[in-house]
Specification:
Blueprint lengths: L1 H17 L2 E4 L6 H7 L5 H4 L3 H7 L7 E5 L2 E5 L4 E6 L3 E6 L3 E10 L4 H9 L2 H10 L13 E11 L2 E2 L4 E9 L2 E7 L5 E2 L4 E6 L14 E4 L2 E5 L6 E4 L2 E4 L5 E3 L4 E8 L5 E7 L4 E10 L8 E2 L4 E5 L9 E8 L2 E3 L11 E6 L2 H24 L4 E3 L5 E3 L8
Antiparallel strand pairs: 1-2, 2-3, 3-4, 4-5, 6-7, 7-8, 7-9, 9-10, 10-11, 12-25, 13-16, 14-15, 16-23, 17-22, 18-19, 18-21, 19-20, 20-22, 20-23, 23-24, 26-27
C-alpha cells in the first residue's frame, strides 16, 4: 500500500513539474529585453525578417505566455503565436482552434434581435446576419416573420474568438422569402447566385495606389507564405498588376524612406499629415527626382510595379502604419461610389453554389421543425451546445 501511495505522489510531483506554467508580459518589456532576461541569444531576433519583427512589436503588457519543457509560447494575435524552442530557435506557428456548428429557427414575437440574443447570448450572430443581408432593412422584420440560420463559431480553449460565420440563412418578411448562402469567395448570394450590393457614397482622404487592379492577398496575421513555406503575418495588401504599372501616393506626404528593404525589395515610405505612414514595396524602379524629404501630392506617381525582394511575381505590397503598428489599409482606402448593382456568379462558382442550395433545402425543412441546436455563449465567453428544449441560462 505504501509503495502504491509513494508511486502516486511521485506521479503527481512529476506532472506538476512537467505542466506548463503561465506568466504575464511585464510593463516596459521589449522582446529583446525578454530574450536577455531568459538567457536567450538576441541574435534570434535579429535573424528574423522585417514582417516578423513588426509583429513582435504588437505584444502588449499583460499578455499571457507559457513555459513548458523549456519552450516558451507567446500568443501574438488571435491566429498566430511565437514559439522559442530550447532557447535556440524562433518559430511562428498558427494557434490551434476548433469549429463548432450551430443552427437556430425562430418565429419572431416582438424583436428578432432580442430573441436571437436571448437564445444565443451572441451579439456577433446578429452582426453576421446583417452582413449576410446587406441590402435588406432587417428593421422591417415584424411579429410572425421567421428566421432560420446555419452557422459556425471558432473557439479556442472553450472561448469564442470571432463573430459567428453564417453558412446559410432564410428570412421571411411579410411572407416573402429571402435566402442567403456563403459562397467560396466569402461573399453572400441568393438561391440563384445573385449578390445585391448597395454602396453608400463615402469620402476618404486616401486613394488606391493602383487603379484597375485586383487584390491578390489581403491583410492578415496568419498566411502560409508561398516562398518560405511557413506561417507568417501579411501586414498589408498585395495588388497584382503588370510590371511597370505606375504606383501613386495614396495621400499627400513626405518621403521618409527610399531604398532596398530586405524582403520588401525596392521600397518607399511616406509620412502623412495625421501621423499615418504608407509603404510601397517590391518596386521595379523609383520615379526619377524623388528622394528622402521630397513632398509628394496625392496621386503622384512615385514608382513602378515590380518583383524585387522576396516575391513570386509582379505586384505592389501596400502597407499602412499608425504609431508604428501595422493597420489594415482597407480601413482607410475605399472606393467611393453610390449606386446599387447586381453581381451574379458564373461557371463553376455558380454550379458550386447551386449544389449548396439543393443540399440546404432539406436542412431548412428539418430546422423549421426542430428549432435547431444553437450555440450559447455564457457570460464568461465559454461556448456550449444546447437544444431549443434546454432551459434558458
Amino acid at each position: 500500500m505504501k509503495k502504491v501511495l509513494l508511486s502516486f505522489l511521485i506521479l503527481i510531483t512529476l506532472s506538476s513539474l512537467l505542466s506548463a506554467k503561465t506568466y504575464h508580459w511585464r510593463k516596459g518589456t521589449t522582446f529583446l529585453s525578454f530574450l536577455r532576461n531568459h538567457g536567450i541569444s538576441q541574435k534570434l531576433y535579429y535573424d528574423l525578417d522585417q514582417d516578423d519583427k513588426e509583429l513582435l512589436a504588437e505584444i502588449r503588457t499583460g499578455q499571457k505566455y507559457t513555459i513548458k519543457h523549456g519552450n516558451i509560447i507567446i500568443p501574438i494575435t488571435d491566429e498566430l503565436q511565437i514559439e522559442i524552442i530550447n532557447k535556440k530557435k524562433i518559430s511562428l506557428e498558427p494557434i490551434p482552434f476548433e469549429t463548432l456548428k450551430g443552427s437556430i429557427h425562430i418565429v419572431v414575437k416582438k424583436s428578432f434581435e432580442r430573441e436571437l440574443y436571448r437564445k444565443t447570448n451572441s451579439k456577433g450572430l446578429i452582426k453576421s446576419l446583417k452582413q449576410a443581408y446587406k441590402t435588406l432593412n432587417l428593421k422591417n422584420i415584424k411579429k410572425g416573420d421567421k428566421i432560420s440560420i446555419f452557422y459556425q463559431q471558432r473557439r479556442r480553449d472553450g472561448k469564442a474568438i470571432e463573430n459567428p460565420k453564417i453558412l446559410a440563412s432564410h428570412i421571411t418578411i411579410h411572407k416573402k422569402s429571402y435566402y442567403s448562402y456563403l459562397a467560396k469567395n466569402g461573399r453572400y448570394y441568393d438561391s440563384l447566385g445573385k449578390e445585391y450590393k448597395k454602396i453608400k457614397k463615402s469620402y476618404t482622404p486616401y486613394i488606391r495606389p493602383i487603379k484597375h487592379t485586383r487584390i491578390s492577398s489581403g491583410f492578415t496575421h496568419r498566411r502560409y507564405h508561398p516562398i518560405l513555406h511557413r506561417y507568417k503575418a501579411h501586414l498589408g495588401i498585395d495588388y497584382a498588376n503588370r510590371a511597370g504599372t505606375p504606383i501613386k501616393a495614396t495621400a499627400k506626404g513626405r518621403i521618409i524612406s527610399r531604398g532596398w528593404k530586405g524582403g520588401y525589395g525596392r521600397c518607399i515610405k511616406i509620412k502623412h499629415a495625421n501621423g499615418l505612414v504608407s509603404l510601397y514595396a517590391h518596386m521595379s524602379r523609383y520615379r526619377k527626382g524623388l528622394r528622402v524629404g521630397s513632398i509628394v501630392p496625392q496621386g503622384k506617381v512615385i514608382g513602378y510595379v515590380g518583383s524585387s525582394g522576396r516575391s513570386t511575381g509582379p505586384h505592389l505590397h501596400f502597407g499602412m502604419y499608425k504609431k508604428g503598428k501595422a493597420v489594415n489599409p482597407a480601413r482607410y482606402v475605399r472606393i467611393s461610389k453610390h449606386k446599387t448593382f447586381t453581381n451574379k456568379l458564373k461557371g463553376k462558382e455558380y454550379t458550386s453554389l447551386r449544389k449548396k442550395v439543393i443540399r440546404y433545402r432539406r436542412k431548412f425543412r428539418r430546422l423549421r421543425k426542430s428549432g435547431g441546436r444553437p450555440l450559447y455563449i455564457k457570460s464568461n465567453n465559454y461556448l456550449v451546445m444546447r437544444t431549443n428544449q434546454d432551459k434558458e441560462v
